[in-house]
Amino acid sequence: MIKNTSNKKSLSLRRQPFVFLSLSSLAFLLILIRLIFLQIFNYESFKKMSDENRIRLIASQPIRGRIFDNNGNVLADSKVKYSLIIKPQSVNKSTWERHKFGISDLLNVDSQLIQEKYIDGLKNQKLSVTILDDLNPDQLIKFKENEDNLFSFEIATKLIRNYPYKSLAAHVIGYTQPVTDSEYKFLSKKGYKLNDLIGRTGIEYVYEDLIRGEWGGEMIEVNSIGKFQRSLGIKPAKQGNDIELTIDMQLQVVAEEVLKDKKAGAIIVMDPRDGAIKAMASKPTFDINFFSKDFKPEREYKRLFNSAEKPLFNRALNAYDPGSVWKIVTALAGLESGKFPIDTMLETKACITYGSQCFREHNDLGFGVIGYEDALRVSSNTFFYQVGYGVGVDEIHEVSGKLGFNSLSGIEISEQENIGLVASSQWAEDGRGWGEPGKTPWVPEDIASMSIGQFVVQVTPIQIARAYAAIANGGYLVTPHLVKKDGNYFSDKKRIKLDFDPQNIQLIKSGLRKVVEAGTGQSINFGVTNLPPVSGKTGTAEDGEGGLDHAWFVCFTPSEKTELLVVAFAQNTPGGGSVHALPMAREILKVWNENK
Fold first, then answer.
1. 478 pairs with which residues across the strands?
2. Higher pLDDT residue, 476 or 89?
3. Residue 160: what pLDDT?
4. What is the DSSP track for 19-84?
5. Which of 16, 358, 461, 502 keeps 20 to 30 A from 572, CA to CA?
6. Using N-to-C axis directions, what is the helix angle for 327-337 and 444-451, rounded to 10°?
7. What's the pLDDT band for 44 if we cut at 50, 70, 90?
8. Which of 193, 211, 244 is a domain's end point?
9. Which CATH number covers residue 541?
10. Burial 120-143 (b: 16+ CB within 10 A, else e)
11. Is residue 6 part of a domain?
């Protein structure tokens, strides 16, 4: 028994070196595998981490692209803001005192303040410290004249958005604001930096990717404790692309000028052949430069964002009751349905009863027996009540859809646009947007209101412009646009041929010509010489929200081979379209004709 135990101990002792060698080999193999993994497979990842620890970027801001009108006038550009800075870690200490007192005397800056900022920059290992922000021209010139003796200091530039004409075309151009903390979380992946500018509305927003450009900067190498070692090179910032608009500044100026005495309203000037917007104005408006200020006064901020006047609201793209300018839609519905053909003659009356209400003629007398042309000329209500009631709501709804109503116009700044409302029997059956389905059916009173553009019809000035352009250009629905696109707006995708009988289009066009020759719009020629023939339509609309009446006037010229269309809208301005809206359009036609 003693011998057997001794043999076991001897065997165990002989195995110990083998076990130790095996464990050591395994450990070494694991370490080797780990090293191979780190050196080969994770090389790029660790190299990136290393570079991020030793390389810093002093960023240089890109210049946003400019925005021009169609004649090359600058509507938006970038303005340079100059600041005096030091790079504390690269300052030559042997010359620092001399330079510090030199800049203090030259620019009248407290030398102690400069010293404090310098020490703070060293202490906190800052790569750049601002000594003076927003230098004025005199300070900048003084520095440039003496910079050879002040090389401890540098001029840093910051770009801010600048709008030379302040409020001109504000709703079209839009504005920029700094990127917020919450936005930065996902925008950083697209190259944005915290407080970088980004377009919020208008062209600035829609064409952000084209306008913004790309950041550049200087690559700085630092050591393990963050101290400057050397510059690794400079990558210039890439300027953004310029944008050329279809806007004509002269027409834009007069469009905004004619709105000045109105409480609120909008003007649209458009080429009806291709939809190019020559002017788009909305009142009230705002100075776009407000958004470029570092400090924004509370009073100005409240006027923009909390005011009941809503100056940021683009009324050219908002929906209102159209009144009589809608009558061309009812006329087309009557003609296209075949129920009221071209030779239709109807007796107009003082009023016609629908449901429980007598709907009046605007002169309280009637105009006798008349056809389409004269009905448009005198803007008869009772003529169009009969046509509308005869064809029905859904026929009017269908025709209006072909003319571009109840949908977005296609204009680039659609984030500001309202599709409006053109009622249908289904809309009423579904609850009218506020009631229970089946509890708010279509009633006779609705069709009378709809026939003359009241209450169950809400449209935008840009939609009215499209519809009248289709009459002016012989039956093409155009896409309104603000940016030049080398003529492709004459393509089939941008100009839709409407399936209306050309004779019906021509009849309405003749009626609109009579409006100006001997009807409610004849004052368009007062005080204007050599103006080509004009066609148009006045409109006075009750405000469905309970406010004062709206005033409308739409016109195009020349009546044949039309080149220009104007929509003038005065919100809550009682007195009639011929009194308040027509004179605005006349001033625009006058300037256009003089320039032409």
1. 495
2. 476
3. 86
4. HHHHHHHHHHHHHHHHHHIIIIITHHHHHHHHHHHHEEEEEEPPPPPPEE-TTS-EEEEEEEEEEE
5. 358
6. 110
7. low
8. 244
9. 3.40.710.10
10. ebeeeebbbbebbeebeeebeebb
11. no
Q: Are residues 335 and 453 in the same domain?
A: yes
Q: Which has the minimum average pLDDT: 212-226, 269-283, 335-349?
A: 212-226
Residues written for the chain: 596
Query: Is there a single domain that holds both residue 277 and residue 294?
Result: yes
- Does the pLDDT value for residue 52 go beyond 60? no
Establish how many alpha carbons lie within 13 A of residue 499's alpha carbon, considering only the half-sphere containing its beta carbon: 4
Q: How confident is the model at residue 4 (pLDDT cuts 50, 70, 90)?
A: low
Contact between 319 and 326 (Cβ < 8 Å)? no
The answer to whether the beta carbons of residues 320 and 572 sit under 8 Å apart is no
134/79 Cα distance (integer angstroms)? 12
Same domain as 148, residue 227: yes
Q: Is residue 330 within 8 Å of 451, Cβ to Cβ?
A: yes
| Residue the block writes with tokens 């984030």 | 415
Whether the CB-CB separation of 515 and 530 falls below 8 Å is answered with: no
Residue appearing with tokens 């303040």: 113
- What predicted TM-score, i.e. pTM, was given to this entire model? 0.82
d(CA 527, CA 533): 15
Cis ω on the peptide bond leading into residue 532 (within 30° of 0)? no
Radius of gyration of the chain (CA): 36
DSSP 361: P
- Maximum alpha-carbon separation in the chain: 141
Query: Do both 268 and 221 map to the same domain?
Result: no
For 365-376, the pLDDT digits (tens) are: 999 999 999 999
Average pLDDT, the chain: 89
Please give the C-alpha separations between residue 206 and each of 27, 79, 412, 489, in angstroms, as whole numbers: 61, 21, 7, 18
Give the mean pLDDT of 336-362. 96
Reported as a pLDDT band with limits 50, 70 and 90, residue 12 is low
Q: What is the mean pLDDT of residues 22-45?
A: 65
Instruction: For residue 94, give every residue at least 6 positions away whose Cβ sits within 8 Å of its Cβ, in sequence order, or none.
Output: none
* Domain extent for 375: 249-305+313-595
Q: Which residues contact 99 (CB under 8 A, 6 or more apart)?
A: 149, 150, 151, 152, 153
Contact 317, 418 (CB under 8 A): yes
* Final residue of a structural domain among 228, 244, 260: 244
> Which two tokens mark 583?
């004179």
Neighbours of 539 (CB within 10 A): 28
Alpha-carbon gap, residue 413 to 479, rounded angstroms: 12
Ordered alpha helix ranges (H), 408-479 = 425-429, 444-451, 461-472
Query: Do 229 and 353 lie in a common domain?
Result: no
Tokens 């010489």 locate to: 529
Q: Tokens 């920059």 map to which residue?
A: 121
Helix/strand/coil percent split, the chain, to 5:
45, 20, 35
> Where residue 2 falls among pLDDT bands split at 50, 70, 90?
very low
pLDDT of residue 43: 52
Claim to verify: residue 91 and residue 233 sit in the same structural domain: yes
237-248: per-residue pLDDT in tens? 788 999 999 999
Tally of CB atoms within 10 A around 289 = 18
